[in-house]
Amino acid sequence: MSTLPTDRPTDGSPELSIIVPTFREFEALPHLLDRLAELRRSRDISFEVIIADDDSQDGTEAMIAEKDLPWVQLLVRKENHGLSPAVLDGLALARGNTLLVMDADLSHPPEAIPAMLKALADGADFVIGSRYTDGGTTADDWGLVRWINSRVATVLARPLTSVADPMAGFFALRRDTFEHAKDPDPVGYKIALELLVRSGAKRIVEIPIHFSDRAHGESKLTLSQQLLYIKHLRRLYIFKYGIWSHLTQFLMVGALGTFVNLGALTAGLRVSMTERHALLLGIATSICFNFLLNRRFTFSYARAEAILKQFVGFVAASFAGAVVTYSVTLALREKVPQLSIQLAAVFGIVCGSILNFMFNRFLVFRAKHIRPESS
To answer: Which fold has domain 16-241?
Structure first.
């Protein structure tokens, strides 16, 4: 008996669309298709499979043609290569009311698909084939480094979602959930996290799976992909938290700037500057440092503007915060003489940081600097 949601298509389209992004998976694909074919035979499930291939040129096209499976469609992508864009292109071609994404390397068991579909039929918006929920396991030879890498990535995503395995590449969702995703624009491999956050899915179910190590081919996880994940997280934080995300980044830059400030302050004292002059040196040095980092990271959307113009604006916007920092530091030194100038400066910096953020977020790096004019 079928375990698909009840809102089945009535125009002859398949009930389920399975999207499989590939790049040089020629060895693994035949095994995956055999297991999916067995699933079609043993279950009352009608589905199509869309292979979204990044122009592998490894024999995949010939193999698909030779198998001649009417329920398999090959999409050869000539540009904008990458797992996430491949999945989005596959989803755009999908005809089913239920959408499912899985890898081709046999790490995701097709036999778990019926349980995932049942969860959707029971009311879930989004279902994950999870390694880390109760009952989920990974291959014995997965490796400590790989396990730690996955866990750290999961912790970094925790403010975005509470699911145990947001890094999963094996997931299913309703078409209407996908269509509610606001302007998906993923980078890297974590398309499930992208859709989870941007769709606003509330009823999320994790189905335990055994995550096998790939039997064929090579892993596509590289250092560049891990760096793209950080970039991806930053985009999602901004999407979900807006100004508060910018504030967090601003404060993180400010924390680094505090060390720069204190270093310059201490260096000034060591060359016999007065405390007032050394304090001014620390503030000026940290302003330059903070400008460069905020322009590169916190307000990167505004980097198209002229750097000199922004630097002048940043200095002007930071002036009030600098005055607060300077005044609070000297006042504390006067009221509590036993307090070191460095510790007093920390208090002063904290007092000036929020004011600096408000001026820079809404004056120097305001989004309308780069927003295209409406036609």
So the answer is: Spore Coat Polysaccharide Biosynthesis Protein SpsA; Chain A (3.90.550)
